[in-house]
């Protein structure tokens, strides 16, 4: 045991978590940000970007499963999937569990995150070796504006919406996400907590309602992100995301059909949220 500690500098939560650090595994600058991986006795390995905790080995499956498996199961036959961000590979790992998925395009700005994950986070980065996975190193908004590819699912696994990730939640970018989807496609993004970031969640829901037939959100309880009651916002062109359309036959730790059905925000709470 050391008495080394790491205090998170959360960009817009009124709280700062402090972790006991057993060992610093990697601390380096990538081209875009500072990247730290440390080990904590309780959480296992922890990935930190510019002072903000992105995942811990202990609870990442709650986040990655709910971000991906809800839409993967609400879609009748997801084959082509776009992941924006997600350089650690956690979302990619989840998507590739499905045999229906033929191709995953990942668009990650910072190759340094992928490299560090392949080196230090082996339980997350398994998918990069899969021949269905294709990685492009560019900005999500630029890819969306320029591509002629069409997808069944667009999954936005971004950092907090400050700095570069804020560009992903503009009208232009969300509209572009809608236009790269096939006719019955679905969009999903991580959209922060209902406790500390309700204004942001409301803004995203209102925008999605303009660009998609259905806008909705589910929540997932996380132990590590400040605010904890974390939201996953969904825009869908046809299919009601509340309804699982396929049986869950992939291995998951948290996601299951009954979890899917109970994860969506109660309608009265959603109404209050949207009305502000
Ligand atoms: N993306 C969401 C990170 C949010 C972290 N926020 C915080 N700790 N305040 C995580 C990427 C995992 N693939």
Let me know the largest β-sheet: 7 strands, mixed
Bound molecules: 1-{4-[(3-aminopropyl)amino]butyl}guanidine
Helical content stands at: 25-40%
CATH fold category name of the largest domain: Rossmann fold
The CATH class of the largest domain: Alpha Beta
How many individual helices? 8
Q: What is the CATH architecture descriptor of the largest domain? A: 3-Layer(aba) Sandwich
Tell me the name of the CATH homologous superfamily of the largest domain: Vaccinia Virus protein VP39
Mean pLDDT: 97
Q: Encode the helix/strand succession as letters.
A: EEEEEEHEHEHEHEHEHEEHH
Strand order, sheet with most strands: 9-8-7-10-11-13-12
Concise overview:
The chain is an alpha/beta fold. It has helices spanning 60-74, 90-95, 111-120, 140-146, 171-179, 198-211, 257-263, 267-275; strands at residues 5-7, 18-20, 23-29, 34-40, 44-49, 52-56, 80-85, 103-107, 133-136, 151-157, 181-193, 214-221, 229-236.
Describe it.
There is one protein chain. This protein has two domains: 5-56, Spermidine synthase, tetramerisation domain (Spermidine Synthase, Chain: A, domain 2); 60-275, Vaccinia Virus protein VP39 (Rossmann fold, 3-Layer(aba) Sandwich). Helices cover 28% and strands 30% of the residues. The chain has helices spanning 60-74, 90-95, 111-120, 140-146, 171-179, 198-211, 257-263, 267-275; strands at residues 5-7, 18-20, 23-29, 34-40, 44-49, 52-56, 80-85, 103-107, 133-136, 151-157, 181-193, 214-221, 229-236. The model has no long low-confidence stretch (mean pLDDT 97). 1-{4-[(3-aminopropyl)amino]butyl}guanidine binds at residues 10, 13, 52-55, 86, 88, 90-91, 157, 159-160, 190, 225-226.
């Amino acid at each position: 045991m050391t008495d080394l500690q790491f205090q998170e500098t959360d960009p817009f939560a009124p709280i700062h978590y402090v972790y006991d650090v057993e060992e610093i595994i990697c601390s380096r600058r990538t081209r875009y940000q500072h990247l730290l991986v440390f080990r904590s006795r309780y959480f296992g390995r922890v990935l930190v970007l510019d002072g903000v905790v992105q995942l811990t080995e202990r609870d990442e499956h709650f986040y990655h499963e709910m971000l991906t498996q809800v839409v993967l199961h609400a879609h009748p036959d997801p084959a082509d999937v776009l992941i924006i961000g997600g350089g650690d590979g956690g979302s990619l790992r989840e998507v590739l569990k499905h045999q229906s998925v033929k191709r995953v395009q990942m668009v990650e700005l910072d190759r340094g995150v992928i490299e560090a994950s392949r080196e230090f986070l082996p339980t997350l980065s398994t998918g990069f070796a899969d021949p269905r996975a294709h990685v492009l190193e560019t900005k999500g908004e630029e890819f969306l504006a320029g591509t002629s590819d069409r997808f069944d699912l667009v999954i936005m696994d971004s950092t907090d919406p400050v700095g570069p990730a804020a560009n992903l939640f503009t009208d232009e970018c969300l509209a572009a996400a809608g236009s790269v989807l096939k006719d019955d496609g679905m969009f999903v993004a991580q959209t922060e907590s209902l406790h500390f970031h309700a204004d942001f969640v409301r803004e995203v829901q209102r925008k999605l309602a303009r660009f998609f037939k259905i806008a909705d959100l589910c929540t997932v309880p996380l132990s590590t992100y400040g605010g904890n009651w974390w939201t996953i916002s969904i825009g869908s062109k046809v299919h009601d995301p509340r309804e699982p359309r396929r049986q869950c036959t992939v291995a998951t730790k948290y996601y299951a059909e009954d979890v899917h059905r109970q994860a969506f925000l109660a309608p009265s709470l959603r109404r209050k949220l949207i009305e502000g």
